[in-house]
Structures are given as C-alpha cells and as structure tokens.
Amino acid sequence: MDNAKQQRLPNLFDALIVLLFTTAIIYMSVRVWKTDVHIPIAIAAVFAAIYGFFILRCPWSEIADGIVAGINTAMMSLLIMYTIGIVVGAWILSGVVPSMIYYGLSIISPKMFLLCSLIICSVVSIATGSSWGTSGTVGIALIGISAGLGIPTPIAAGIIISGAYFGDKMSPLSDTTNLAPAVSGSDLFQHIRGMIWTTGPTYLIVAAVSIVLGLRYGGGSMDMAKIEAIKSVMKSEFFISPVGLIPPILVIALVALKIPALPALVAGIAAGVAMCIFNGMGLAEIINVLQWGYEPKLIGELAGAGENAAALTELLASNDLGAIPADLAAEVAKMLSELMKRGGFQNMNWTVSLSVVALAYGGIMEKCRFLEALLAVMLKKVRTVGDLVFVTCFSSLIGNVLLADQYMAIVLPGRMFRIAYEEKNLHPRMLSRCLEDVGTITSVLIPWNSCGAFHANLFGISTLAYAPYAILNWLNPIVSVVITYMGIGIAWKNKDGSVTVSRTRPDNA
Questions:
Q1: Angle at 379 between CA 378 and CA 383, to 5 degrees
Q2: 332: closest CA among 237, 264, 240, 472?
Q3: pLDDT (tens digit, 9 = 90+) per residue, 225-258?
Q4: Reduced to 3 states, what is the DSSP secondary structure of residue 320?
Q5: 3-state class (DSSP) for residue 148
Q6: DSSP-assigned states of every residue in 397-418
C-alpha cells in the first residue's frame, strides 16, 4: 500500500484537535500537576505525529525529516545558548556581573527610587539574562526598600517587573532572546537590533511614568543599610571595579561592528577569563565554573549559617564585615546566593532540551501541515504588513493564555508565520521581534501562566494588582503593532540577505 498517495491535507478541524490536545496536556501539567513543560510538549509531539501518520497518512520519513529540520533551523542558536552559559559563569567569577549590580545600586536616590529600580532591574537582568532571577533577588530587596518609602507594593512590583523583563527581552544571555530568532530564522543580534524599534520607545515611556510616580512618594527615607550591606558583601567576595565593565563593552562593540554572535560571545568569555587570571585564579577553578557555573563562597557560607548568630558574627568579623548586623547579613547573603549561583555549560541543559523538544514539535506540526491549515484561516484578511504583525502578536498572546507557557507562545507562532513573512520578503527579525514583543513579556500578566503565578507568589499580591503598573509588558505589544501600521521600523530582506528598514518594500527585496 502506498501511504504517500493516500495522504490528505489537514483541515481546520484536524488542526484544532491537535492544538486543543496540546493546550490541554500543557495546561494540566504546568498548572495542575506542577511539572516542567518538556515531557508534555514531547507527548503533544507524539500525538501530532500519530495523528499525522494514521489519520492524514503522512509518511513517517517526512515526519522524521520535519523533526530533524525543525531542530536544525536552531542549531546555531542552541550552540549560542551553551556559550551563554559559559559567558555567565565567566562573568560572575571575574566580577563583571557583580560590578554591574554594584554600580547599579549606587545610583539609587529617594525621589528617583522608581526610576532607579527600573534601571537597576534592567541592568541586572541584562547582565544575567533572567527576569525571574532579577525579580526574585534584587527585586525583593527593592520591594523592601519601597515599603520604607511608603510606595504601594503593586506600583513598585510593576516597575520592577518592567525592568526585569526589559533586560530579559534585550539580553543576549536570555533564553527567550535566543529562542525567538531560532524559530523565526533570524540571528541573535539582528533580532536585538530589530527590538530596539519597539522596546526603545516603550522603555522611555516607562521611564517617564516612573519619574512621575516616584516624585509622588519622594518624601520617604530609604533603607540604605541594606543597600550598603549588599555592596559590602559583594565586594568581599568579588573583584568590583569599573574594569568589570570592559567585557560587556567589548561584546557590544563587536556587535556594532557586525561580528557574528558566537565569536562575539567567545570574545566576551576570553575577556572574562583574562580578568580571572589577572586576579590570581587558577585554571582548574576557572574551567570548573565554566562547566558547572559559579558556586558562591563567602556568600554561600553566610547564607548557610542561617540563624546561627554566633557563626555569622564570626564570619563577618573575619572578613571585615563586622559592621553589618548578623540578621541583615544573613538576609543579604541568601538573596545574593540565589542571584549568583548560576551560569556554566551544563546549567543550560534545561533550556536547550526544552528548545529541542519544542522545535521538534514545531517541525512535526509544519511537516504534517497542521500549521498551514491554521494559517490559512488566520491570514484570510491579512493584506498589509501591519495586519500580519497584528495577527502574529495576537497569536502569541493567545499562546500565553491557552498554553500557559511563554516558550510555546514563541515557538508555535514562530513556526506558523515564518513562511508568511518570507512570502512578503520581510526580514526574519520582524517575526522574531513580534514573538518577543508579546510572547516573552505578556506571560507575567496572566495569572495562570507560570510567569504570572511566580511573580504573584513572589511579591505576595495578585497578578491583576501589579499588571497596570507593569507598563512595559502591556505597552510594548501595542507599540509593536502601532508603529508597524505607521510604517516605522519595517525590516525588509534584500536578495543578498541584508536588511533594509523602510516604510515600503525596496526594489532589491
């Protein structure tokens, strides 16, 4: 029997069956059973493959090719993700990340507290590539400071989240910032350049609102003791110096010179390792951190001492930190330990494995043409680039609402709309920009999404309470759609693969 001759194209009903199964299994696993999303996506991929093989009679050879092709499209990005793990480890050990946080905390002033919080969280999140890590560490400290100033927690939390997700969205160290160009066919730094058009204006608006809101609560007094304790403890463990800003500046400069992402990041690793060697660290220690990530030393000891006041006092005294109260030192050490215990090649396996299984699922959906069936319905009324961007953004938002996972809100629309962007000769960074403008940052606004649930629990308030003040997270999608309809920041793909930004399609596209 010739299986290929009997193959039929899926209709909307077929596509909805697979999509609804995917939604159900992911929602139940993430929200009810509290499991990671990897296996649910793998189960959804198996279901899609079985449906395609037995119902649509799609040959297994084609399904297998779809899996491999789906993963191959992101192979460079997967390598970059592993490289990023090494970058983070090297930059923490060398003092690059601690220096960025240290100087970020130094810019706080009472009347500009909310603006400073926005900037600090942006800097820390760019340095670490983690919105959750930023909110759960520096964000918690800033929430405590805001309480002393009389600033309502929802306002402070919203501004902190805006800063944390700005950094997560724009950082080359972020998993979502790498995932979006991977599924859309763009490259990392073209993707970041594309996001500047939408995220830049949005950030300036958020900064202006932060100033206005901050001035209303500028009469309070700040808990400078905690800030100084954070800075003192960091300085005791890490090399804090303006020299620590050189590696990120080097990477930014190489990017500006249009050096590809992988060699630029390797140069950042080399600069970090050079700083480590200059500070007298052995090669064995450096290699271990590059492999497994940084493990806090003094900070870890202080955090591990817990409520043992005597042990804490002895540790503080032996490290010239005796001026810090034991209880404050324990609090600060716990926070810093959570922030700095990260990086390393092996610690990227969770993200890389998720990307692999999600891309395999996307490859099956594409090869069995489920995505084509959905796309045909969604694109019926799409006439302009603005229409296409709107539909993409809306699909990504629906992905966050239905699938309760920001990764799937990036992967599925990325696979669905990739061909549509190619047909209009739009550069892939237009698609990847939309995926991050919505998929990455709206997840925290949805109560049942993992990001929303995490932050609501973290700050002790409901998602709906902080959502109005997480301005960047709901304004950025609006800006993304509006400026496209205005013809601003539209990136066209030229025949030679280069980019032209213009209102209308250029002749060489």
A1: 140
A2: 237
A3: 888 898 899 999 999 999 998 988 888 788 678 7
A4: coil
A5: helix
A6: HHHHHHH--HHHHHHHHHHHHH
**CA-CA distance, 328 to 495, in Å (whole number)?**
60
CA 412/CA 414 separation, integer angstroms: 5
Distances (CA, A) of 245 to 121, 129, 199, 271, 502: 17, 16, 23, 10, 35
Residue 290: φ, ψ to 5°: -65, -30
pLDDT score of 289? 96
CA 212 to chain centre: 28
- What CA–CA distance (Å, rounded) separates 316 from 325? 9
97 φ/ψ angles, rounded to the nearest 5 degrees: -65, -45
**Residue 368: partners with Cβ closer than 8 Å, 6 or more residues away:** 10, 48, 49, 51, 52, 56, 58, 63, 66
DSSP 265-289: HHHHHHHHHHHHHHTT--HHHHHHH
Size of the chain in residues: 509
* pLDDT for the residue 506: 83
- The set of long-range contacts for 201-208, using a CB threshold of 8 Å and a minimum separation of 24, is 201/479, 201/483, 202/471, 202/472, 202/475, 202/476, 202/479, 203/122, 203/166, 203/472, 205/471, 205/475, 206/118, 206/159, 206/162, 206/166, 206/471, 206/472, 206/475, 207/115, 207/118
* Residue-wise pLDDT tens digits, 12-49: 999 999 989 988 998 888 778 888 888 988 999 999 99
Tokens describing residue 336: 């810093």
Per DSSP, 489 falls in state S
